[in-house]
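forwarding from the other thread:

> can someone predict this with pyridoxine-5'-phosphate?

sure thing
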Amino acid sequence: MAGLSVNVDHIATLREARKARYPDPVSAGILVELAGADGVVVHLREDRRHIQDRDVRILRSVVQTKLILEMASTPEMVGIALDLRPDVVTLVPEKREELTTEGGLDLMVHQSSVAETVDTLQNSGIPVSIFIDPDPEQIKLSHRINASMVEIHTGTFCDANAAVKKEQAFSNIVDAVKLAHKLNLGIHAGHGLCYSTIKAFKGLHEIDEFSIGHSIVARATLVGMENAVKEMRALVKAL
Ligand code: PXP
């Protein structure tokens, strides 16, 4: 059965919108765990637009399930990860102008620097997942550089409106998942998933964990964090 990790970045987005002290993503991390999430995810961006260093530090000491740190493959972030020791690091591409992470890491372009980061972190005992598009070449390269896991980008599928595009995007995800499984990579999936798109993953049991943020935080503003996480947890359980 797949797990559910909840990304609490957007609690920090709300806080930073007013440069206030609330809402606190640390409190959100505790609440999502109490509601049954299998992990808490935060993305410490280079520009610190939402999650701050203090958030990750406190979350590291209070999260009891699993703390997943999303970060760019840069010397600054590697230093922070080595110091903080999250349970998993997910390497993501980062552009200052983007609204959110827009695509997977392109290992055709960044293979050698990402391989170095994977080696450094994994040699220190921190498993690394690489956020990649559902593309067989990216899966093979992730395997070649010895990453423990991949996180398959589900955004193209979730955002597609036309049925043909959606079908093609999902078929790419299925192929990527099957290949990653064959190569013995751990498999996470995420980006853009909501209470409706998650249902498409029924039967795709090779996925170990879904990483979901925006839709859960958005729903939590209306029904509360506990209900929002529990509803998604039930949908993931039913896959
Ligand atoms: N996985 C990765 C690697 C991400 O960068 C994000 C967004 O921060 C997510 C999952 C969660 O995406 P969403 O907020 O759209 O659920």
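Strands lie at 3-7, 39-43, 67-71, 88-91, 128-132, 149-153, 186-190, 209-212. thats all i got for now
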